[in-house]
Design brief:
With 379 residues, the chain is an alpha+beta fold. 48% of the residues lie in helices and 15% in strands. The protein is built from eleven helices and ten strands. The strands form three sheets. Strands 1-4-5-8 form a four-stranded mixed beta sheet, with helices on one face. It has a four-stranded antiparallel beta sheet with strand order 2-3-7-6, with no helix packed on it. The protein has a two-stranded antiparallel sheet with strand order 9-10. Helix 5 runs antiparallel to helix 6 and helix 7 packs antiparallel against helix 10.
Length: 379
């Protein structure tokens, strides 16, 4: 992860601060927080006090005004931390904050962004529904105009930060007959009447992440809560998705990197048949393959990050990065667990947590199969 040309010494100082923060504040507490199924809001506030939310938000909206590389350094360090997969910072800081920054009104930006920077306001994004999964064009949550308000009805599922969030950026249909052109993005504060959080979903991994259902029953919000233009939500989503997918790719690579480092350490200590596991040719060959895959993955990530910085990253490049890093990352973590033998299957060993936590990367942000569709259309 280190000595990458796109990062300067300030980025690396920020990285070491972030790594220390997660080592001291997250890793010792993750087992307890997993039992509760949610990260405490104090953890969000502490991260805010350390400057770990919304790094790229300009100073006029309360942010540090740093470049987007800081967001990605943080995303990598969250992925590198044991239990980091449960940390929902990225949805709030890398995704919703940029929807607001790029498409929101001045009033919306001044209202929400400063509190997101401090961690006082936690954001969720409501795309997925029980019936449509990755197929955003088929979403059924409706927002119908009534005077100067929208009346919202429907439900969402698999929503990251679902229990903690103070507002959700909701993808809904404002014109059911218009398909993709009828989709709009609307800010819905969670204290509004008719909004209800469903159960905190029980997942195989990311157990401290509050991933929830949400229900909307005649929820009324002012039309000033519309983000961007009515009916332009799908276009906004498509514009923002490449960056979201790079964020997921960074996490996937960082998880694989941590798995490799844990495994290298383990095989140099563990003995079998009278010698170190590391001395066996199979172990060395497997680690050589992994080291090479990591080097290739980081090189492509850095190429994509440079294009994001220039505003040139295409949807298929974002999809290619997510597809390759998540598929390869999952294989790396699986291969690493194998080298731990029976101990790899024990929950007390961090490799087991990385194994279950990383599996979702091939599903959310668009499944691997959807990534292939996106890429296939450009062939």
């Amino acid at each position: 992860m280190h000595n990458r040309a796109i990062f300067n010494s300030d980025h690396e100082l920020f990285r070491s601060n972030a790594r220390r923060f997660f080592r001291e504040e997250l890793e010792p507490n993750i087992a307890r927080w997993e039992d509760k199924g949610v990260l405490p809001k104090e953890f969000w506030l502490k991260a805010g006090a350390n400057g770990f939310h919304c790094c790229g938000i300009p100073e006029e909206y309360g942010g540090p005004g740093a470049d987007f590389f800081y967001n990605m350094v943080l995303s990598e360090e969250v992925g590198y931390a044991i239990g980091g997969a449960s940390v929902g910072f990225s949805v709030s800081s890398d995704i919703v904050a940029y929807y607001l920054l790029n498409s929101g009104t001045e009033e919306q930006k001044h209202r929400w962004l400063p509190k997101m920077v401090t961690g006082e306001s936690i954001a969720a994004i409501g795309m997925t529904e029980p019936g449509c999964g990755s197929d955003l064009k088929s979403l059924r949550t409706s927002a119908l105009r009534d005077g100067d308000e929208y009346v919202i009805n429907g439900q969402k599922t698999f929503i990251t930060n679902g229990q903690n969030c103070d507002f959700v950026l909701l993808a809904c249909s404002t014109n059911p007959d218009a398909g993709a052109r009828g989709i709009s993005l609307i800010i819905v504060e969670t204290e509004r009447e008719g909004f209800e959080r469903g159960q905190n979903l029980d997942k195989i991994g990311q157990k401290a992440a509050d991933t929830s259902e949400m229900f909307f029953s005649d929820v009324r919000v002012p039309i000033s809560n519309l983000l961007g233009q009515e009916g332009a939500g799908f276009a906004v989503l498509m514009n923002e998705l490449p960056r979201e997918r790079i964020t997921i790719a960074c996490r996937a690579m960082a998880e694989a990197q941590r798995a490799f480092e844990l495994t290298t350490e383990y095989v140099k200590e563990r003995k079998a048949f009278g010698k170190q596991l590391f001395e066996f040719q199979n172990t060395q060959f497997k680690l050589a393959e992994i080291k090479t895959s990591l080097a290739v993955g980081w090189a492509y990530i850095d190429q994509c990050l440079t294009k994001i910085d220039q505003g040139k990253l295409t949807p298929e490049e974002g999809a290619m990065a997510k597809l390759w890093t998540t598929e390869t990352g999952n294989k790396i973590v699986d291969d690493c667990l194998q080298l731990f033998g029976g101990y790899g299957y024990m929950r007390e060993y961090p490799i087991s947590r990385l194994f279950v936590d990383s599996r979702v990367r091939r599903i959310y942000g668009g499944t691997s199969e959807v990534m292939k569709l996106v890429i296939g259309r450009t062939v």
